[in-house]
Amino acid sequence: EIYTLSLHDALPILESLSTHFRQKEEKLEEILEHLAEEVAKGTPIVVEGAKDLKTLIALGVAGRVISAKSAGKSLLDLVSEIESTGAREVILLLDFDRRGREWMGRLKQLLERKRITPNTVFWHGLFSLVGKEVKDVEGLASYMETLKSKISGNS
């Protein structure tokens, strides 16, 4: 059977989608605001590369950022760099793909052995919202733009 959906019938669906996108955008913005506050307090943040750093700046997160993959760094080199900051806690914001998750797990263990607290709260919050749609940190800014256009397009 073929069903015809009138504009009148479609409006509640579009409004529901718009509400969903708006709620998702609000949750993402809230996580990013808290992340920006934490980084502004001096907590270092570890990202994979330079494009991730540019994305964070575009999203309003600025502070001490450590790139995990610059100049062929090993995980042990990265841990040494983190140790040299003197920070007792570091925010891990590696990519959302399989490799990023693996790196994060290994880095977390190494940091814990050095008695440095690896903060993965922001990563888990972002992953729960965008993990199926965004594979890396650098994709967050364009994802936010897409969300905003879906909201304005449906309202």
Short overview:
The chain is α/β, with parallel strands linked by helices.
Task: Tell me what the structure shows.
The protein is α/β, with parallel strands linked by helices. 61% of the residues lie in helices and 8% in strands. The chain has six helices and four strands. Strands 2-1-3-4 form a four-stranded parallel sheet. Strand 1, helix 2 and strand 2 form a beta-alpha-beta unit. Helix 1 packs antiparallel against helix 5 and helix 1 runs antiparallel to helix 6. It is elongated and about 65 Å long.
List keywords for this structure.
single chain, 155 residues, alpha/beta, 6 helices, 4-stranded parallel beta sheet
Task: Tell me the layout of helices and strands.
Elements (H helix, E strand, L loop, with lengths): L6 H34 L4 E3 L2 H9 L6 E3 L7 H10 L4 E4 L5 H16 L3 E3 L1 H10 L9 H15 L1
Parallel strand pairs: 1-2, 1-3, 3-4
Helix amount: 55-70%
* String of helices and strands: HEHEHEHEHH
| Shape label | elongated
Strand order of the largest sheet: 2-1-3-4
Mean pLDDT: 88
Q: In terms of per-residue confidence, which ranges show pLDDT below 50 for 5 or more consecutive residues?
A: none
- Strand runs, count: 4
Oligomer: single chain
Provide the gyration radius in Å.
19 Å
Count of individual helical segments = 6
Characterize the largest beta sheet: strand count, sense, and whether it forms a barrel.
Answer: 4 strands, parallel
Strand content: 5-15%
Q: Strand pairing plus helix content: what structural class?
A: alpha/beta
Ends apart, CA distance between termini? 31 Å
